[in-house]
Amino acid sequence: MRKPERIMDFVRRADEMWFDRKSKMFLPAIRVLSSMSMENWGLKLELFGSLGFSENDILAVFRRAPQVFSVQEQNQGC
To answer: Exposed/middle/buried for 21, CB within 10 Å: 0-12, 13-18, 19+?
Structure first.
């Protein structure tokens, strides 16, 4: 259960990413945003950036398939 002000924060963040509230991906995006800290979000942006994606590319991927950002990094002992 989340406090209403926290939910509104996630909605605000999605709005800042030009997310269409009528999109069927809006609720999954809110779910993904609520599942990670701002620090983890920043790390994911850095990872995608290191792979050659621009900020606009990253946000376009997030708008189309927010679940991609819910994948957790795991240390494989490498």
So the answer is: exposed
Judged by phi (left if over 0) then psi (alpha if -120 to 50, else beta), residue 72 lies in: beta
- Tell whether 14 is covered by a domain: yes
Question: Contact, 7 vs 29, CB < 8 A?
Answer: no
**How many CB atoms neighbour CB 63 within 10 A?**
17
Domain that holds residue 31: 4-67
For 25-43, the pLDDT digits (tens) are 999 999 999 999 999 999 9
Say what the pTM is. Answer: 0.80
